[in-house]
Amino acid sequence: MTSPASIVCYYDIVSPYSYFGVMLLNRYKEKWGDKVQVELRPMFLHGIMTGSKNQPPANVPAKGTYMFSDLNRICNMTGIPYSFPSQFPVMTVHVMRLLIVIQKCEPALYQACVEALYGAYWGKGEDVTQKEVIMAALAPVFNGSESKVAELIQMAAEKDIKQKLVDNTNEALDKGAFGAPWFVVKQAGSDEEHFFFGSDRFELMTNFLDLPYYGLAVNKSAKL
Protein backbone atom coordinates (compact mmCIF):
# COMPACT_ATOMS: atom_id res chain seq x y z
CA MET A 1 0.00 0.00 0.00
CA THR A 2 1.41 3.41 -0.99
CA SER A 3 2.21 5.67 1.92
CA PRO A 4 0.40 9.03 1.88
CA ALA A 5 2.10 12.37 1.51
CA SER A 6 3.20 13.88 4.81
CA ILE A 7 4.10 17.22 6.37
CA VAL A 8 5.91 17.44 9.70
CA CYS A 9 6.05 20.97 11.10
CA TYR A 10 8.70 21.69 13.73
CA TYR A 11 7.57 24.66 15.78
CA ASP A 12 8.05 26.65 18.97
CA ILE A 13 5.42 28.83 20.64
CA VAL A 14 7.92 31.71 20.87
CA SER A 15 8.12 32.04 17.08
CA PRO A 16 5.58 34.44 15.48
CA TYR A 17 6.06 32.93 12.04
CA SER A 18 5.49 29.47 13.51
CA TYR A 19 2.23 30.82 14.95
CA PHE A 20 0.94 31.88 11.57
CA GLY A 21 2.42 28.80 9.91
CA VAL A 22 0.75 26.37 12.32
CA MET A 23 -2.60 28.16 12.22
CA LEU A 24 -2.58 28.18 8.41
CA LEU A 25 -1.50 24.54 8.24
CA ASN A 26 -4.35 23.56 10.56
CA ARG A 27 -6.75 25.59 8.42
CA TYR A 28 -5.64 23.92 5.20
CA LYS A 29 -5.45 20.36 6.47
CA GLU A 30 -9.16 20.33 7.26
CA LYS A 31 -9.75 20.75 3.52
CA TRP A 32 -7.01 18.35 2.44
CA GLY A 33 -8.57 15.47 4.37
CA ASP A 34 -6.75 12.16 3.98
CA LYS A 35 -4.59 13.39 1.08
CA VAL A 36 -1.75 14.20 3.48
CA GLN A 37 -0.68 13.29 7.01
CA VAL A 38 0.17 16.34 9.12
CA GLU A 39 2.11 16.40 12.39
CA LEU A 40 3.02 19.34 14.61
CA ARG A 41 6.30 18.42 16.31
CA PRO A 42 7.48 20.52 19.29
CA MET A 43 11.08 21.69 19.33
CA PHE A 44 13.11 24.30 21.24
CA LEU A 45 13.89 27.22 18.95
CA HIS A 46 16.69 28.56 21.15
CA GLY A 47 18.48 25.23 20.62
CA ILE A 48 17.94 25.50 16.86
CA MET A 49 19.35 29.02 16.72
CA THR A 50 22.36 28.06 18.82
CA GLY A 51 23.01 24.82 16.98
CA SER A 52 22.75 26.41 13.53
CA LYS A 53 24.62 29.58 14.60
CA ASN A 54 21.68 31.67 13.41
CA GLN A 55 20.24 34.82 15.00
CA PRO A 56 16.60 35.73 15.72
CA PRO A 57 15.29 38.47 13.39
CA ALA A 58 14.78 40.81 16.35
CA ASN A 59 18.53 40.70 17.04
CA VAL A 60 19.22 42.35 13.69
CA PRO A 61 17.79 45.92 13.77
CA ALA A 62 16.70 46.03 10.12
CA LYS A 63 15.11 42.57 10.32
CA GLY A 64 13.37 43.44 13.58
CA THR A 65 11.83 46.58 12.08
CA TYR A 66 10.69 44.63 9.04
CA MET A 67 9.25 41.80 11.15
CA PHE A 68 6.88 44.09 13.07
CA SER A 69 5.36 45.40 9.84
CA ASP A 70 5.32 41.95 8.26
CA LEU A 71 3.42 40.33 11.12
CA ASN A 72 0.71 42.98 10.92
CA ARG A 73 0.38 42.39 7.19
CA ILE A 74 0.03 38.64 7.71
CA CYS A 75 -2.62 39.23 10.37
CA ASN A 76 -4.59 41.53 8.07
CA MET A 77 -4.39 39.13 5.16
CA THR A 78 -5.15 35.86 6.98
CA GLY A 79 -7.62 37.07 9.59
CA ILE A 80 -5.60 35.24 12.26
CA PRO A 81 -5.68 37.29 15.51
CA TYR A 82 -2.37 38.87 16.44
CA SER A 83 -1.11 41.00 19.30
CA PHE A 84 2.58 41.39 20.05
CA PRO A 85 3.27 39.77 23.45
CA SER A 86 3.90 41.77 26.61
CA GLN A 87 7.08 39.70 27.06
CA PHE A 88 9.19 38.78 24.05
CA PRO A 89 11.17 36.69 23.63
CA VAL A 90 10.45 34.27 26.46
CA MET A 91 12.12 30.98 27.31
CA THR A 92 9.53 28.44 26.19
CA VAL A 93 11.33 25.24 27.18
CA HIS A 94 8.71 24.37 29.84
CA VAL A 95 5.82 25.16 27.50
CA MET A 96 7.27 22.98 24.76
CA ARG A 97 7.80 20.13 27.21
CA LEU A 98 4.17 20.47 28.23
CA LEU A 99 3.10 20.18 24.60
CA ILE A 100 5.14 17.00 24.27
CA VAL A 101 3.25 15.60 27.26
CA ILE A 102 -0.08 16.53 25.70
CA GLN A 103 0.90 15.07 22.32
CA LYS A 104 1.81 11.83 24.09
CA CYS A 105 -1.01 11.55 26.61
CA GLU A 106 -3.91 13.49 25.07
CA PRO A 107 -3.42 13.24 21.29
CA ALA A 108 -7.07 13.98 20.50
CA LEU A 109 -6.75 17.37 22.25
CA TYR A 110 -3.21 18.18 21.14
CA GLN A 111 -4.04 20.47 18.21
CA ALA A 112 -6.54 22.40 20.32
CA CYS A 113 -3.91 22.87 23.02
CA VAL A 114 -1.32 24.10 20.53
CA GLU A 115 -3.81 26.61 19.16
CA ALA A 116 -4.87 27.68 22.66
CA LEU A 117 -1.30 28.40 23.78
CA TYR A 118 -0.49 30.17 20.53
CA GLY A 119 -3.71 32.14 20.93
CA ALA A 120 -2.71 33.24 24.42
CA TYR A 121 0.79 34.33 23.40
CA TRP A 122 0.42 35.69 19.86
CA GLY A 123 -3.34 36.21 19.73
CA LYS A 124 -3.75 38.02 23.04
CA GLY A 125 -0.15 39.00 23.81
CA GLU A 126 -0.05 37.22 27.19
CA ASP A 127 3.08 35.81 28.84
CA VAL A 128 2.56 32.13 28.15
CA THR A 129 5.41 31.10 30.47
CA GLN A 130 3.25 32.02 33.47
CA LYS A 131 1.31 29.16 35.04
CA GLU A 132 -1.89 31.16 35.40
CA VAL A 133 -1.84 32.03 31.69
CA ILE A 134 -1.30 28.37 30.78
CA MET A 135 -4.14 27.36 33.07
CA ALA A 136 -6.52 29.93 31.60
CA ALA A 137 -5.62 28.87 28.05
CA LEU A 138 -5.79 25.10 28.49
CA ALA A 139 -8.49 24.51 31.10
CA PRO A 140 -11.32 25.14 28.58
CA VAL A 141 -9.83 22.47 26.30
CA PHE A 142 -10.12 20.02 29.21
CA ASN A 143 -13.72 20.94 30.06
CA GLY A 144 -12.63 23.46 32.67
CA SER A 145 -10.47 20.98 34.60
CA GLU A 146 -7.54 22.91 36.06
CA SER A 147 -6.52 19.78 37.97
CA LYS A 148 -5.98 17.95 34.67
CA VAL A 149 -3.84 20.79 33.33
CA ALA A 150 -1.86 20.84 36.60
CA GLU A 151 -1.27 17.10 36.24
CA LEU A 152 0.08 17.55 32.72
CA ILE A 153 2.32 20.43 33.82
CA GLN A 154 3.78 18.22 36.53
CA MET A 155 4.48 15.46 34.01
CA ALA A 156 6.44 17.93 31.86
CA ALA A 157 9.23 17.83 34.44
CA GLU A 158 9.83 14.10 33.91
CA LYS A 159 13.21 13.06 32.53
CA ASP A 160 11.90 11.32 29.42
CA ILE A 161 9.85 14.36 28.44
CA LYS A 162 12.86 16.64 28.80
CA GLN A 163 14.89 14.25 26.66
CA LYS A 164 12.16 14.07 24.01
CA LEU A 165 12.34 17.84 23.50
CA VAL A 166 16.12 17.59 23.16
CA ASP A 167 15.72 14.74 20.68
CA ASN A 168 13.14 16.63 18.60
CA THR A 169 15.38 19.68 18.50
CA ASN A 170 18.45 17.68 17.49
CA GLU A 171 16.37 15.84 14.91
CA ALA A 172 15.34 19.14 13.34
CA LEU A 173 18.95 20.34 13.36
CA ASP A 174 20.02 17.10 11.65
CA LYS A 175 17.44 17.85 8.96
CA GLY A 176 18.96 21.26 8.34
CA ALA A 177 16.71 23.48 10.46
CA PHE A 178 17.96 26.99 11.17
CA GLY A 179 14.69 28.55 12.32
CA ALA A 180 10.95 27.98 12.63
CA PRO A 181 8.61 26.86 11.31
CA TRP A 182 10.61 24.08 9.67
CA PHE A 183 8.67 21.70 7.44
CA VAL A 184 9.75 18.20 6.45
CA VAL A 185 7.71 17.06 3.47
CA LYS A 186 7.39 13.70 1.74
CA GLN A 187 5.50 12.94 -1.44
CA ALA A 188 3.08 10.02 -1.51
CA GLY A 189 4.90 6.71 -1.84
CA SER A 190 8.33 8.24 -1.16
CA ASP A 191 10.66 8.24 1.83
CA GLU A 192 12.72 11.15 0.46
CA GLU A 193 12.53 14.22 2.68
CA HIS A 194 12.26 17.75 1.33
CA PHE A 195 12.61 20.83 3.50
CA PHE A 196 10.76 24.15 3.55
CA PHE A 197 11.28 27.10 5.89
CA GLY A 198 8.82 29.77 6.94
CA SER A 199 5.11 30.48 7.01
CA ASP A 200 5.16 31.74 3.41
CA ARG A 201 6.02 28.47 1.68
CA PHE A 202 2.58 26.87 1.45
CA GLU A 203 2.17 27.63 -2.24
CA LEU A 204 5.46 25.81 -2.92
CA MET A 205 4.64 22.88 -0.61
CA THR A 206 1.16 22.34 -2.01
CA ASN A 207 2.46 22.48 -5.57
CA PHE A 208 5.15 19.95 -4.64
CA LEU A 209 2.56 17.61 -3.09
CA ASP A 210 -0.13 18.27 -5.73
CA LEU A 211 -2.50 19.58 -3.06
CA PRO A 212 -4.97 22.45 -3.49
CA TYR A 213 -3.69 25.81 -2.29
CA TYR A 214 -6.32 28.08 -0.79
CA GLY A 215 -4.28 31.24 -0.44
CA LEU A 216 -3.66 33.34 2.64
CA ALA A 217 -6.61 35.69 2.57
CA VAL A 218 -9.91 34.94 4.21
CA ASN A 219 -11.02 38.26 2.73
CA LYS A 220 -9.87 38.76 -0.85
CA SER A 221 -10.16 42.52 -0.42
CA ALA A 222 -7.86 42.54 2.62
CA LYS A 223 -5.59 45.55 2.62
CA LEU A 224 -1.87 45.24 3.32
From TrEMBL:
The active site consists of S15
Q: What is its EC number?
A: 2.5.1.18
Source organism, top-level taxon: Eukaryota
Q: What InterPro entries does the annotation carry?
A: DSBA-like_thioredoxin_dom, GST_Kappa/NadH, HCCAis_GSTk, Thioredoxin-like_sf
Signal sequence segment: none
A GO cellular component annotated for this chain's UniProt record is:
mitochondrion
For the biological process aspect of GO, one term held by this record is: glutathione metabolic process
Q: Where is the DSBA-like thioredoxin domain?
A: 7-209
Q: Does the keyword Nuclease apply?
A: no
Q: Which UniProt keywords apply?
A: Transferase
Tagged with keyword Transferase: yes
Q: Name one GO molecular function term.
A: glutathione peroxidase activity
Entry's Pfam families?
Answer: DSBA
Give the reactions, separated by semicolons, that this protein catalyses: RX + glutathione = an S-substituted glutathione + a halide anion + H(+)
According to its UniProt record, which protein family does this protein belong to? Belongs to the GST superfamily. Kappa family.
Q: What is the recorded name of this protein?
A: Glutathione S-transferase kappa
At the highest ranks, the source species' classification is: Eukaryota, Fungi, Fungi incertae sedis, Mucoromycota, Mortierellomycotina
